[in-house]
Amino acid sequence: KDNLINIFSVVSVNVNSPRVKLLSPLGKPVTVQISAVWDGATTVSHEAYQISFVAHLPPLGIGVYQLLEDESSEAVLADYNIYVRNSRQEKPDRVFKIKEMEHSVDNIILENAYMKLWFSGMSGLLEKINTKKDGKNHQMKVEFAWYGTTSNRDKSGAYLFLPDGDAKPYIFADPPIIRVTHGKIFSEVVCFFHHVTHTMRLYKVQGLEGQSIEVSNIVDIRGEYNRELAMRISSDINSQNRFYTDLNGYQIQPRLTLSKLPLQANIYPMTTMTYIQDVGVRLTLHSAQSLGVASLKNGQVEVIMDRRLMQDDNRGLGQGVQDNKITANVFRLLLERRHGTDMNEEKAPVSFPSLLSHMTSLFLNHPVIPMTTNADSGIPELITTFSPLMSPMPCDMHIVNLRTIQAKVDTKPSDEAALILHRKGFDCRFSNRDVGLLCSTTQGKLKVHKLFSKFRVESLTPTSLSLMHSPPDARNISEINMSSMEINTFRIRLR
């Protein structure tokens, strides 16, 4: 597990029976949600079931959970409402409770301890969010849109984006099939459009994972001709043509949408996050993949998810973009309150994410890695937990890598390792109370002997980022001291 704090994370695995019992590393029963595995939009598979539970893991560590088949299973089954044309009310299923219904003007509602979401009963798309801490409603309209390409001789290609004007709304003749899941660990709304399967999932867990909405789009534009598909979120945030994107996940760059420029000049790359804000609220779209983003109207964020272009754009590739695959795009939508801000500062050349935002990004880009093994495969009993760090890392410090260094003569590793640390810069005017972060900040200081619990640090010496050069005054240090926004590399000897 990569995240360097004690982590509560929802883990999902597929099993072949709905009668299961799960034991934690300490041997205690764990609450489990059982969800259906679907063949298409409305057919339940009875070959497999998905179980989801909250795993509690130590930083950089391993936790071993035991999965048993148990007739008296106390696992909680998810319920389903499916909005479909010509519905036939109760849909018989031997395991799950599934109700079919007609599309309606009534909203679909999901909620957890932090927020309440309203979705359209016709399209299944998000319409507004209520944040429970301050009781405020925020308009938050999700839509899809198509970009075409210009009718001029030079058209869009792999490198150039030359649209034929503003994006056209994604129009669907029939309302999509909408599948709503209500469960104990998570609830979700899935909409099946022709080119995109759109999921919004709300986790019902305390802490980090419950405070943002997981958005996933499975995009398939393999049959399209010179078109690009974008997801657009329109909010009531007064962003004043400003938005912010990150540079390689390391720093945030303010951007200004200028109406005098052509549309394509207002689109910027996003590596891990983009946000818009006003005096009271910040809306961050965290991304698990790099994409192009824009904020073309006040309060709006849009992200281009896939493009299919039939011609070369004379930049050396020699072909269009026609090798499209079905593409998964995963995001997290985070809405935060801002305190103590004034409008002068909105024009400042720097901006920082909040600590919660950094952690949410880590969650998306360094997820828990589930691994399975058969209990009767003859392997020796595994340790139930492995916890190499003495205590969680400070919230703003991230271990980029801890890896062996090859010996100079032999192909074997030497007795030294490389420890690469990154200290993030964050905006401390966002409240960290009640956000459930299980770590603290230490002004960039770390005592070396308090790093590892199972190992003794014999020596730790600063070196250049690439490990090629050590400064002339390099010596064994007992405390790491890092400034914000810095990355440092150390040679470390463990015993």
Number of helices: 1
DSSP strand content: 35-45%
E-strand count: 35
The CATH topology assignment of the largest domain is Beta-galactosidase, Chain A, domain 5
Number of domains: 2
The CATH homologous superfamily of the largest domain? Golgi alpha-mannosidase II, domain 4
What is the CATH first-level class name of the largest domain?
Mainly Beta
Describe the largest sheet.
12 strands, mixed
Are there runs of 5+ residues with pLDDT below 50, and where?
none
Helix share bin? under 10%
Distance between the termini: 22 Å
Strand order of the largest sheet: 9-10-8-16-17-18-19-28-25-24-21-22
Question: Which overall shape is indicated by the principal axes computed on the Cα atoms?
Answer: globular
GO molecular function: alpha-mannosidase activity; carbohydrate binding
Pfam families: Glyco_hydro_38C
Protein name: Mannosidase alpha class 2A member 1
Domain Glycosyl hydrolase family 38 C-terminal: 110-315
Descriptive keywords:
single chain, nine-stranded antiparallel sheet, 495 residues, globular, Glyco_hydro_38_C, 1 helix, Immunoglobulin-like, 35 strands, twelve-stranded mixed sheet, carbohydrate binding, mainly beta, Beta-galactosidase, Chain A, domain 5
Question: What is the gist of this entry?
Answer:
This protein has 495 residues and is mostly beta strands. Helix content is 2%, strand content 44%.
Can you describe this structure?
The chain is mainly β and 495 residues long. The protein folds into two domains: 79-365, Golgi alpha-mannosidase II, domain 4 (Beta-galactosidase, Chain A, domain 5, Distorted Sandwich), CATH 2.70.98.30; 388-494, Sandwich (Immunoglobulin-like), CATH 2.60.40.1360. It is 2% helix and 44% strand. It has a twelve-stranded mixed β-sheet, with helices on one face. Strands 11, 12, 13, 14, 15, 20, 23, 26 and 27 form a nine-stranded antiparallel β-sheet that branches. It has a four-stranded mixed β-sheet with strand order 1-4-3-7, with no helix packed on it. A hairpin with an 8-residue loop joins strand 18 (196-203) and strand 19. The protein is globular, with a radius of gyration of 25 Å. GO terms for molecular function: alpha-mannosidase activity; carbohydrate binding.
